[in-house]
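Submission sheet (multi-component)
Chains listed below:
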Amino acid sequence: MFDRRLLIYFNWGFFGLVLSLVCVGIVTLYSAVAVGTAGPPSTLYIKQITWYGIGLFILAIVFMIDYRYFDRWAYVVYGACLILLAAVLLFGRYGGGSKRWLGFGPVHLQPSELVKIAVVFVLAHYYSRVMEPRGLTLRELIKPIILVGLPFVLIVKQPDLGTAMLVVLIAASITVFVKIEWKTLIFFIFAGAGSAAMAWLFFLKSYQKQRIMTFLDPNRDPLGTGYHIIQSKIAVGSGRISGKGLFQGTQNTLSFIPEQHTDFIFSVWAEEVGFIGSACVILAFMILIIWGLRIAHECRDPFGTTLSVGVTAMIFWQVVINIGMIMGLMPVVGMPLPFISYGGSSIVAVIVCVGILLNVSTRRFIARDGQVIG
Amino acid sequence: MSAYIRSGDREWYKKRLNGGILCVVAAFSILIARLFHLQIIEGEEYQRLSLNNCIRLRSVPPSRGLIFDRDGRLLVDNRPSFNLLMVLKDAAPVHETIHRLSVYTGLPEGELLEAVNVRNRRNSYKPVMLKADISRDVLAAIEVNRYDLPGVVVDPQPKRFYVHGPSAAHLLGYIGEVSPGELADEALYGDLSSGDFVGKFGLEKSMDRLLRGEPGGRQVEVSATGQVVKVLRTVEAQPGLNLFLTIDHDLQAKAEALMDGITGSVVAMDPATGHVLALVSSPSFDPNDFVGGLDAAIWDEMLLNPHAPLENRAIKGEYPPASTYKIVTAMAGLEEGVIDEKSTAFCPGYYEFGDRIFRCWKKSGHGTVNVISALSQSCDVFFYQVGEKLGVDRLAAYALAFALGRATGIQLDREADGLIPTSRWKLARFGEPWAEGETLPVAIGQGFNLTTPLQMACLTSAVGNGGPIPRPTLLDRIENADGQVVEGKDPQAAGTEMRFLPVSPENLDLVREGLRRVVNGPHGTARGSKIEGIEICGKTGTGQVIGRDRSEDTQEVALPAHLMPHAWFVAYAPAENPQIAVAVIVENGEHGSGTAAPIARELIRMHLVSGDERTETADV
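Outcome: structure written.
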């Protein structure tokens, strides 16, 4: 039942851009974990390639299912993800001070990665039915707040503040895209600021405030995150114009940079290829994101458009926060760089996003008649 | 209009999407600008930092809190020691550096190489420990030849020093490297990493959180040879808190001297406050042996030693209380009204119960005794009858109310509960109902009952006090490094509601009179330990190691040493308003009066004589 038009309209350019970022990821990961270290070279990059393979397989599945099925099944996917999140809190594995993983035999799943996509599904489903040129009213926003609030609370409980914040950012991006009334927007800004001030004054304990202050200003913790930041900045800065050469980085081989194969991987790339190579990757990400918005624009179906905007926002925020953090522009949070950081669940999640975008893009003409094509 | 949107108004979408694209371009412009700033404008400086020098993190361990006795005499100190480390990356070529190091210092080259190669080291900028606690000679040789030894780092580390060696070892405890198992416990040891030291035993363990302090660190810039060029940032280490114990070091040392060569335990406390003045478990060990990693030979010897020097008998040794338990039986009997001050019993040297004969320790019998003379002469027959009338559960109810049968809650790890048998306990434990005949040996402390020396010291204190049961404590106060008293950190101080012996003053006075006569009466079992001028009140005990049941006619034959009975003596002094309570147990010491009582007497004498004389006594 394969529709040949799926091949004709396939967005090869977009797919090629993704593949080139994946290549950057493999090379950088190889440099980070397998070059210049004493002892046997780590095989993490082999694992990562396996994950890319699994990701491609999942991408194919996501691509084949007409995205309008996601519209129909949005709440089912969402509910399943909430159950997984709750299961994490009950049966999850501890790692790095929080409970984030669910074990299924050899595979460890991080449900918070999937929840991000599920939230995009339900919001796209809802907004595509209620949006108006005048913008959404407060009453129309009650349901989205609940839909985002539930997973938000569950993720904060893990605790994984970075992902929780990301869910809110994605939801806010979609919401702003479908337009909110001015007065509602202003109301939210004041309500948010007010409740934050209330929490700060009355509810947070001093150690919690301390933690937030350190989060906002890593220099307050020169032996922890402050140290990570300075090492990361040295790595990036020392790359200068053309870098030290692939696999020639010195900062990364010394294990100076913590989490160098996960969250801080971009510093390895920046050190080795310098401004030229790093700017290329940043631009590639920018093109990818603008392309995602173009796919949203080309789609004639409100659900497809909001869906595309949502998954594009997800990639956008991760890229900006991660690279900003590495260069000392943002607080340090656990946030992987899409396509490049090591980590199975985050790779699969971002490749699902790509699958969705390809899905919407390819069906931009064939889906016009309202017929679902599988 | 809205239907129009839903069908896809491209102009409307386009406006909003263009806004989105604008945001994206703006965000990425900031990223590129920042990248430009770091790599092009400041690139040279960062390159310098990355090439010639490196920023390192040096952790600064906190100094561990000190431990003093009640008079501020230092018991546990930190002394400087030096660890020899090497930063492999700076020391390249490593083999040559190691060779020179070996030549200069005389340390065997093979051992040093082994330390370097022992693990796959991915992080070659992290210093590797070559040798802990090097001697002054080695240190001097390294300092002199520093320029020939790149990457060699001498790290001054405070080393725990137990000033009086084995003295008070069981209560002070010792420290050791944190184990992987301990590290897994995030709540207690979450801020530590392997190689750090933590308390492993005694107060070092139970007060570890307070003693440990908070580690600090330095962000430093180091040169190519690993020398610190510049300290960028420092977080000061927070020293641990200092503990001032209730222990009187002189009394502790005296008790240890008296217990020398004896297996057993001594606990002395201030009856009014529960402040433990001395806590001895003999034989002891030297905690200094544990600090640098225990020598295998010493460890084996300790484990194989039948006298278990590592066990703290004062809190963990569970012994049948023997005749000292008659204090409990007497108070229970008086309170329950099964006896009063006029009640007498005739002791022919044995007591017939059903078809069994229970013997008194004095074969010829004590004749007619009342509660006072039965206590002072330790007549078994009198207390068999009290026990028989009370029944095991009523007796146990009193024992439990006297705070026996459960840990006292002193600030030490692994305290034993002891055991106060009840009929329900026996049914649960053995699946058999209680036989009435079993109550009789329990009444004289020879049944299933088990107590620790610390519990008996508390009970004796309570009797001496006239009611209040003290909560034993080892901590007088906690001070920070500046000498300010820190409140609210002592776990034992949390539960401070008073507990009292549920005994009327009249009945308690009868018991106290009995105990007074044990030492001061003409027939008292410990009359040999009488001191002129101080009225000691006490109770002897002889706890049989074999044949807990006295119903059989045991032959008076010489027993091998390890089957000799344990000797107990519990005492308080002076009789009115007592200043000290003591519990002594001498394992296989035969009779309480012969071996245990003189130890208690000497400690009481020492504690109660005036300051001047006391120093003389201490010097002897």
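Remark: The mean pLDDT of chain B is 85.
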